[in-house]
Amino acid sequence: MSQPNDDHPTWTRARAVVPRGVSSGHRVGWKQVFVRTEGAYVWDDEGSRYLDYLNAWGPIVLGHSDERVNRAVYEAVSTCDLTGVGPQRGEAELAEKICEVMPSAEKVAFCTSGTDATMHAVHVARAATGRLKVLKFHGSYHGWNDHVAVGSSRKDLNANSILNTPNGGGLHPAVVDDVVVVEWNDRAGLEAAFTTYGEELAIAFAEPYIHSFGCIPAQPGFLELLRELCTRHGVVLTFDEVKTGFRAAIGGYQSLCGVTPDLTAFGKAVANGYSLAGLAGSNALMGHLGAYDRDQATIDGTYNASPYSLAAANTTLRIMETENVHQRLWDLGARLRQGIAKAIDDTGARATVDGLGSEWCVYFRGELPTNFREAMQSDADAYGRYHASLLSQGILEPAFPTGDRRLNAATTDDDVDRSIEAVHTALLAAQT
Ligand code: PMP
């Protein structure tokens, strides 16, 4: 298996002309350069093969380089690539399917990334309510717009740290000041935030099942409380289903948990690796997406609803439905989590595992975390040893302890069983 290599020529070359050598933060820390993908596997440029449990941080759900999806994309670009005029080929078909399967969707607008989708959600909510403030949960990531890139910093996490610390530099302080950050699963904190800011809040964001810092469900009644408070105070409840949408279930986590938001931001798994995202909501709310009107929100984008991304998404959803892909994802995920839990027992490692469907996280702490602060108490050194051991056994997982990991539907039972053995070895390595 290849070793991390600071002197890798591709990295050296990239670092000379691209800040830090990458165009997306989490790509740092990886010394490998991947050059081939197929099914459940990725290959680096030295020919080493890895079982992929990163899956591009979410999009790859059917499997890498799925021929059926790629063929649909090729057919789309070779027939009518991009015109920038009128409804795009496949646009109504995809919107109709999403309205059929996703409880909150009566209308859908498409864009290219989760960051776009959450930005449009804020604009729609502000246009609809005439208010400015945004509520979000501590640690949840919703992209890099100023009004959400707050309160997810992994630094300064001592007990006194201020929750709405900006996630990075260059954010507008006045916008950041308008963000109210609440600890996940903190009922009293949530009620207090609505008592203080309820009439100023335009929007409340929640990942209905946390994937930003591992895999953390809402405690019983928490999503229902959030729904009730938003309704009572006229706040637009927005589920960020960028990770859960089309992966936990075709209709998103909202189709499983029974709580329906007003707006839904989605992306990632909808198009199996092609850049398509979107915003869904009621006719009334989505009616605030107008064009160039001072009182309306606007959606615009050269690549929005590109025919090739629509072809990828329509094909992905068709395969999900006809091949019962979610049953497969859930079965594989359950088999893996059970195996990991047994490996934890067998090795006596101070670790826990939790997850949803095809996603999971192993925490190096005695108990499952219920919020960001607790998740960040996972032992980073132990995780580092665990991660290095898995990598050396040909398994690719996130490089930081609270990264959620996921499998795709091309993974086999044998892959899962081999991973459980590798996890056993890695848990022993973590304890040394
Ligand atoms: N929301 C969530 C929950 C996410 O996980 C992400 C990306 N990891 C985003 C929003 C932003 O999506 P994108 O990277 O497509 O801009």
From TrEMBL:
GO terms for molecular function: pyridoxal phosphate binding; transaminase activity. Keywords: Aminotransferase, Pyridoxal phosphate, Transferase. It holds the Pfam family Aminotran_3. Its cofactor is pyridoxal 5'-phosphate. It comes from the Bacteria. InterPro entries: Aminotrans_3, PyrdxlP-dep_Trfase, PyrdxlP-dep_Trfase_major, PyrdxlP-dep_Trfase_small. PANTHER family: GLUTAMATE-1-SEMIALDEHYDE 2,1-AMINOMUTASE (PTHR43713), GLUTAMATE-1-SEMIALDEHYDE 2,1-AMINOMUTASE 1, CHLOROPLASTIC-RELATED (PTHR43713:SF3). Belongs to the class-III pyridoxal-phosphate-dependent aminotransferase family. This is Aminotransferase class III-fold pyridoxal phosphate-dependent enzyme.
